Amino acid sequence: MRSNRFDGRYAKDRQEACDLVLSLIPQEATIGLGDSVTIEEIGVLPRLKERGNVLYERYRPGLTPPVPDDEKNKYLALTSDVFLTGVNAVTTGGQLIFVDGAGTRAGPVVFGPKRVIVVAGVNKIVRTLEEGLARVRHVAAPLNARRHKMTELPCARGSECLDCDRPDKICCATVILEHCWHKFPGRISVVLVGERLGF
Question: In order of start, what are the domains of the chain with their CATH numbers?
Fold first, then answer.
């Protein structure tokens, strides 16, 4: 990760990951959140809220009292101080793979917030880009479709993506980050966690 100008970090378990993420976020920072099971599983969201950070999140309106509107939160996340999210796959070559529906996760990762923190469990690590994209099709897409109760999608009904052409598909944008841009080295912190998290 570091050779690709990412700020690579390691945490042995979800508790250590939670503490590490908290240490990377200033108390006065506004935080945009990508839809992420991993972020929920490390338990950092309640602690950020208790600390007084303002969170902009689309899927859990109770987290964001100042701006409960879903559409406003989507745009405010783009200009937040910190964007906090998971990732679909991390290659052993240090590449990050994001597959999105509306781009509300991939967009802020690429450009916008001053700092991005990506958290990934060891189950997200793959050898190649091809393995990472296959992981999305066979693991992440079906489980995410079911989680969001999008039961009409073929992947929600089966065990893999069938490359559907539905208007409500969840795999509209694929972003592969090879490096942090040279003018902002370390803008993206990647916290790899030594246990299985998310999907």
Answer: 2-124+178-193 (3.40.50)
